[in-house]
Structures are given as C-alpha cells and as structure tokens.
TrEMBL record:
It comes from Paractinoplanes brasiliensis. Pfam families: GNAT_like (PF18407), Hydrolase_6 (PF13344), Hydrolase_like (PF13242). One of its GO terms (cellular component) is cytoplasm. Keywords: Hydrolase. The keyword Hydrolase applies. The keyword Hydrolase applies. GO terms for molecular function: phosphatase activity. InterPro entries: GNAT-like (IPR041065), HAD-like_sf (IPR036412), HAD-SF_hydro_IIA (IPR006357), HAD_sf (IPR023214). Residues 280-335 form the GCN5-related N-acetyltransferase-like domain. PANTHER family: 4-NITROPHENYLPHOSPHATASE-RELATED, D-GLYCEROL 3-PHOSPHATE PHOSPHATASE. This is HAD superfamily hydrolase (TIGR01450 family). The lineage of its organism: Bacteria, Bacillati, Actinomycetota, Actinomycetes, Micromonosporales.
Amino acid sequence: MSGDDLAGGYDLVVFDLDGVVFLIDKPIAGAPEAVERLHERNTAVAYATNNASRRAAEVAELLTGMGVPARPAEVLTSAGAAAAVLADKLPAGSPVLVVGADALRAEVTEAGLTPVESLDDEPVAVVQGYGPEVGWRVLAEASLAVRAGALWVVTNTDRTLPSPRGPLPGNGSLVAVLRTALDRGPDLVVGKPEPALFTTAAALSHAERPLVVGDRLDTDIQGAVTAGVDSLLVLTGVSGPADLLSAEPGRRPTFVAADLSGLFRPAEDAALPLRAGEAGGWRVSRDGGSATLDGSGDPVVALRLLCAATWDGVAPAAVSGASDAARELLSSWGL
C-alpha cells in the first residue's frame, strides 16, 4: 500500500454498485478506469450491493460487460446473505415464501430451502427483496403468511433506486406496503446499513484496513460507521450535498468526492469535515447559529467547509451565500 493518495491507505475497497459504479445498466463515467487502477496496484476490490434482483455471477457478468472486470467471488449480494441467514435458522428443505426476483428464489434454493408462492404451501418464513415484477398478489400472500407466524426477513430497506431518469421505488417502498398492512416491521433486515456485507468482504479478502465507497448515507455510509470502517461518499447517486450537510453522526462519511476519481487524490483533499474556514477560493464565516459562504471554486471544497459548520450545530437552512458563485451553488443544492 502507498499513502500517496486516498486509496493507497487501504488494502480493500468495497464498492456499492447502483449510483457508484453504474446506473441501471450503464457505467458511471470514470468507474471502469478507477477499478482498473486499483487492480493494477493489487488493491483488493469487492462489491457489496443491496439489490437482490441479481445473483453474484450475474452481477460479475454485468460488470465485466461494462468494462469493469469482476469475479463472482468479489460480489456480495443481499439476496445471498438473506438466503444464508435463513439456512442457518431453518431446517433443510423448509418452505420459504419468496417476494422478489428469480435471483432471490435461486439463492433460497441453493441454500437448501424450498421457495413457495402461497400461504397454502405453509411457509415458515417470508423473504422479501427487490423485484421489478413484484405485485399485489404475492404481497398479499406474504402478508397472510407473516400474520400466520412466518418469520419475515428482508434483504434491504432502500426506499429508492437511482436511475438516469431519477430515483425509482426500491425494496424499502415495497417493504412499506407490508409494514402498513401488518402494522409492524420485518423481523430481520440483512443488507446495508447492517454491517454484515462489509465485514464478510473484509474477512474474505483478509483485509485489515478496508474502505467502503457508496452513494447513500442511510445504507452504505451508515453501514460503514456501524462496521467501524472508513467510508467515501461519492456524489454520483442518491445522497447529495444537502443530505450530507444535515447528516446525523451515525451517517457521516470519512471522505467525500464528486466521483471515483477522488480515490486517486490526496486523502486530505477529501477528508471531512474541513475546519480551516477558508480553502480553495472559498471562505465560511459563522455568526452564532448561521453561516455564510463566500468566494468561488470547487463545489466539493465548499461542501467540506460547510460540513464543519452544520455538523457543529448550524442548520443547513441557516447557510447563506455572500457571492454570486456561493448563492448559485447553494441554490443548486436546494438550500
């Protein structure tokens, strides 16, 4: 390892996928090159995704087709993790009602359990993951099964999925349907922000210093904080500058960058928060419970400076701009 840049301080980089490496089926600009650079430096790479609609081999094939070489062993999915949890809890062959895509059914089968679709099959558990074809009928069967005593396990609770057209309903939105019908939450959530995917990736790679890279504060970053590892938020997916400014302590990343190119710049250029008060052409001044941004320059530098103020008690709504560039930037962030 080399400490010359951010990535050089770590022996494993764990990437989220949607919003970090690709959007739906297209790579994010610079992502293939970033992964290739890590491979060239012999830095271990892993992919941890909450999306339960593809199996590890399918994800690896998808990535490779995008110019991001990946092996199935490098991919950890919430579908595989959920099936493994159920296999630990239930006798072999137990009937499990699957709400989700074919990939989740395949993982349940491979784990030695029996996927079913109806309450008539007497399921002892319900496993729920994202699937674009999930509809009312299977949700109704799942509701009945849980009411009858079945264990309810969900792969993740991401409310949205990133897409080129904007955020789309994710598994968390589908879980909310059952949550409303049942008037209670799931018995177990397997994927991020639970730390299991990250700790498993580190164990498989024998990594002592992993770095998590994600685009969501409520899953990727919170999961990293829970796992006790450093994290980098990239602004290519769901969570934006306004979200970062108002982030709770348990959802605050170690670093922030516009995209994956930040991995190959000095760590001090991405570290959070930036308490200097002035850097890169920007200046932040505080007056009691308010803060003012002045100057111009790289938006990420301004964001890092402002995090020092908002994480120290200034409400994001109490941040104003003193220059045209500052006012335009804050407006673009929705402030």
